[in-house]
Each structure stands twice: as structure tokens, then as C-alpha cells.
């Protein structure tokens, strides 16, 4: 039976009364920048905002067992974390992280589901002795490193402590086979001047929408980059799942020292009223690192070689100038055929 003219079709009526899509509210998940031994702001933010979970982006360096220093926060929320390069500086720091009640919440090389959001974690840093993208890796896995290392290079019968915060290709490749909504890393993405395109490729393989990273102590929202929203969380800063500041990041003590030296003004002495110690301790912030000392020694050697080379070039220029001046003072040579 033919429909009367002017009567809307069923398809049009369906479209007319179709429900509009409703945006799903994102869960309250916080991402914490490098704490470097300070956890008071994390405990306070957890108690004040009551998030579903908090993810710490490496370089924790807790002064005590992690579940002890974060006990107030654990009463109201979940704590997840990934290691940073400084979390294997000493045995004490290592044990406070890998021998406490939150060791199972280390999501390095894993994908976990928190409040319906799949979060993938890649802790640690790229090191040239293991693998520096985009070059060929020297060791594909921790097992291959242990097999090819002497007994004197092992620590506690396994991987050297320093390389327990190194990124191995086997962990990276295994993570790339999975799917996630968010990628949290210690290393920066390729949009950062000190970042890695390998982080971008991992995010693409995981099909993530967000990347949150620490390490660089720079608080910056890079926006949409290669189809992913990249957020650098600053030193002791906290942001939510949309990149909004919950706790404003602090200035990196190294940058603060540089700014004070640039101004040629002595730094104002700010003391803690309880312990009568400087609030910003530039020495305890970074643990002694023999590899860093070697780099500084090599840098000094390069500077010395450069200065020697410059002195030699300057002496050569003076000798050449003297020769040219002497040749101008001599009478012109006569042609032997004249």
C-alpha cells in the first residue's frame, strides 16, 4: 500500500527521534610527576580530591617503604607506579620500591584496567649500553645481558642494579602487541626536544589516546601530536586524565640554581621550621652516580682538548702571518731567463 504524499517515511521519523550521543564522563585518575622523595603533596591531593587511582611517573626515591610513605593516600585511593632512572641509584631505594606492599602495582611492561580505562606502562630510560633508538640494540632482553655478562657484573645473582631501570627491546615489543587507552612513560615522547620517536610508535601500536610522561621536569601540554594527546607532567606536579593541573608543578632545583646564578644574586635561605634544614636540598635531590661522574670527567677532557687545539691553531696562524710579512719585506725574485 502506497504511503500518502507528504507523510514522513519511517527512516526519517527514526532519524528525527534518534537519541543524541551522550559524552561519557571520564574517571578521576591522577598522574603524578617525579616526586624525588617528596610525597606529602600526593597524600594531600588524594585526601582532598578522592580520585579513583593515582599513577606515579617514575623517580620516586621514597625515604621509606612506598606503602608506608603513601599510607594516607592508600586509605582513599589506589596507587600505581612505574620506575624512573633514579629508582635504581642505591640498594636502599631499590628495596623500598621492589620489596614493599605495592610491588604488584608496578605497571612497567604491563597493561592494567583502572575504572574501565586501560593504562599501559613503560618505566625506566633508554641507555646506550642496552638500546638507544633508533639504533640496533646490544641486548634484546635482560636474560641475554645476564648470559653475556661476567659474574662480577651481576647484582644479587641477576641483572645489574642500574640496568633494572633500563628499557629492553623485549619489554617494548611485548607491550606493543597489546591495546590500551593511556600510555604512561618515564621517557618523553618525540614532540619533546629530548624525547624519542620510539615512544610515539609504541603509542600508535597500542592505539592510545593519551600519553603522560615525567623525567624532564617540564610541565607542558603538547596537545594533539600524531593523533595522541601528549602531556608532560612537571617536577612534583599532578594532573588529571584531561591534563588539567591538580597540583601545580614546582621548579626543578637545577633550573632554580641556574636562574639564581644568572641573576648574580645569592639564593634566599629558606629553612624548614621543624628540622632547620634548607627546603630545597640540591645535593640530596640527586644521588651520587659514578656514570654521571665519568661523563663529567669526559666532558672536562673534551674541553681541555678543545682549548689545546684552539691554542695550536692560534699559534699556526701567527706563524703563517709572520711568514707572509717576511715574504713581503724581501725584494722580488728576478727571472733567471732575463
Number of strands: 11
Structural class: alpha/beta
Helix count, per DSSP? 10
User: What's the multimeric state?
Assistant: single chain
CATH topology of the largest domain: Purple Acid Phosphatase, chain A, domain 2
* C-alpha-based Rg, rounded: 29 Å
What is the overall shape? globular
Question: How would a textbook summarize the main sheet?
Answer: 6 strands, mixed
CATH class descriptor name of the largest domain: Alpha Beta
Could you name the ranges where pLDDT drops below 50 across 5 or more consecutive residues? Answer: 267-291
CATH homology superfamily of the largest domain: Metallo-dependent phosphatases
How many domains, as an integer?
Answer: 2
Give the termini separation: 124 Å
Please give the order of strands in the largest beta sheet: 4-5-6-7-9-8
Helix-residue proportion? 25-40%
CATH architecture of the largest domain: 4-Layer Sandwich
- Strand proportion, as a percent range, falls in 5-15%
Return the string of H and E elements.
HEHEHHEHEEHHEHEEEEEHH
Mean pLDDT: 85
Characterise this structure.
The protein is an alpha/beta fold and 338 residues long. The chain has two domains: 29-250, 4-Layer Sandwich (Purple Acid Phosphatase, chain A, domain 2), CATH 3.60.21; 268-307, no CATH class. It is 32% helix and 14% strand. The protein has ten helices and eleven strands. It has helices at residues 10-16, 40-49, 66-69, 71-74, 91-98, 142-148, 169-176, 197-206, 253-262, 290-329, and strands at 29-32, 53-56, 78-81, 111-114, 117-122, 182-185, 210-213, 220-225, 228-232, 238-239, 245-247. Strand 4 and strand 5 (117-122) form a beta hairpin. The termini are far apart. The model is unreliable at 267-291 (pLDDT under 50).
Amino acid at each position: 500500500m502506497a504511503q500518502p504524499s507528504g507523510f514522513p517515511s519511517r527512516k526519517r521519523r527514526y532519524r528525527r527521534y534518534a537519541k543524541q550521543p551522550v559524552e561519557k564522563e571520564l574517571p578521576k585518575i591522577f598522574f603524578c610527576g617525579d616526586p624525588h622523595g617528596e610525597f606529602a603533596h600526593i597524600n594531600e591531593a588524594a585526601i582532598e580530591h578522592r580520585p579513583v587511582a593515582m599513577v606515579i611517573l617514575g623517580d620516586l626515591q621514597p625515604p621509606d617503604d612506598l606503602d608506608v610513605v603513601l599510607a594516607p593516600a592508600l586509605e582513599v585511593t589506589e596507587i600505581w607506579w612505574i620506575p624512573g632512572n633514579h629508582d635504581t641509584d642505591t640498594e636502599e631505594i631499590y628495596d623500598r620500591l621492589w620489596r614493599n606492599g605495592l610491588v604488584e602495582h608496578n605497571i612497567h611492561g604491563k597493561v592494567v584496567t583502572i575504572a574501565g580505562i586501560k593504562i599501559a606502562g613503560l618505566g625506566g630510560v633508554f641507555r646506550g649500553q642496552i638500546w638507544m633508538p633508533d639504533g640496533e640494540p646490544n641486548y634484546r632482553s635482560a636474560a641475554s645481558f645476564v648470559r653475556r655478562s661476567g659474574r662480577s657484573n651481576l647484582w644479587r645473582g641477576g641483572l645489574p642494579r642500574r640496568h633494572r631501570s633500563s628499557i629492553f627491546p623485549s619489554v617494548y615489543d611485548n607491550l606493543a602487541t597489546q591495546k590500551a587507552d593511556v600510555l604512561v612513560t618515564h621517557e618523553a615522547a618525540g614532540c619533546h626536544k629530548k624525547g624519542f620517536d620510539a615512544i610515539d610508535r609504541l603509542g600508535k601500536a597500542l592505539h592510545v589516546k593519551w600519553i603522560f610522561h615525567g623525567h624532564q621536569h617540564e610541565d607542558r601540554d603538547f596537545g594533539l601530536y600524531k593523533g595522541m594527546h601528549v602531556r608532560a607532567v612537571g617536577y612534583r606536579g599532578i594532573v588529571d586524565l584531561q591534563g588539567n593541573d591538580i597540583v601545580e608543578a614546582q621548579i626543578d632545583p637545577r633550573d632554580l640554581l641556574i636562574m639564581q646564578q644568572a641573576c648574580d644574586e645569592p639564593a634566599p635561605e629558606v629553612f624548614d621550621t621543624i628540622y632547620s634544614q634548607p627546603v630545597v636540598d640540591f645535593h640530596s635531590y640527586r644521588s651520587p652516580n659514578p656514570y654521571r661522574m665519568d661523563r663529567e670527567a669526559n666532558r672536562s677532557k673534551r674541553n681541555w682538548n678543545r682549548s689545546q687545539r684552539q691554542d695550536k691553531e692560534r699559534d699556526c696562524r701567527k706563524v703563517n702571518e709572520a711568514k707572509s710579512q717576511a715574504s713581503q719585506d724581501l725584494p722580488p725574485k728576478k727571472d733567471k731567463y732575463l
